Each structure stands twice: as C-alpha cells, then as structure tokens.
Amino acid sequence: MKMNSLKKAGSVIILLILGLILIAGCGNSQSTPDEEEELTVINVERTGGFLTGFGKVKVFIDGEEVMKVKNDEINSVELSLIPGEHTIQTKGQGDKSSVVKFEVVAGEVNEFTYHTEISNIYGVSLDRIE
C-alpha cells in the first residue's frame, strides 16, 4: 500500500514540475516579431606590392569566412544579416587586419566597400571606403 502511495506522489510531483516548466516558458515568450534579415553586400578591394601579392586574402564577417580576394581584384558577396552591428576582418599570409565594425540598418541599402592590403612592414590593413 505504501509503495502505491509513493508512486502516486512521485507522479504528481513530476507533473507539477512539468507544468511549472511549461508555464514559465509561456511567460517568457513575448509577442515581438522576429527580426527580418536584410540583404547586405560586402565589396572588398585588395592591393599589395609584388612580394606581398601572392595568395588570397580571406574575408570574415562575424568570424565566419565568406570569400577570398586575390591581389589587384575586387570581390563581392551578398549576405542576409539581421539589423545591428556586425564585424569584418581580413587575414592573409599569417597576419590579420584589425576588426572593423559596421551597422546593418533595416529598410535601407546595406552595401559596404572596403580596401585591404598586405604590407611587409605593417601586416594586413582594412579600411572602409566611403
């Protein structure tokens, strides 16, 4: 008899815990719409001297590689990004550029153009072209 009572009590406790979890989950959901991703175009122009022009520079958006650019070339990539702040960085021949921030704005044209260069002295540079 005691065993059945313990099983029933255990079942009731489990159901109560599950109910509380469901209620807590419903309380946290707000009726805010998901952010729409915006078409974003990233253009990267690369230049460099004769000795630093070999190989490709990798371009990273938010830490993820999205394209490679050869010397004296301009490459573009179209991405779907949520509005807000994002980062771009280039890496080549073992060096990295500084991380540059850019802002994607909902409902606007989001096209960004950058210049990157590998230098024997200064490593990899990355600058936004206005």
TrEMBL record:
Swiss-Prot/TrEMBL keywords: Cell projection, Cilium, Flagellum
Superkingdom of origin organism: Bacteria
Protein name: Archaellum component FlaF (FlaF/FlaG flagellin family)
Organism in which the protein naturally occurs: Paenibacillus amylolyticus
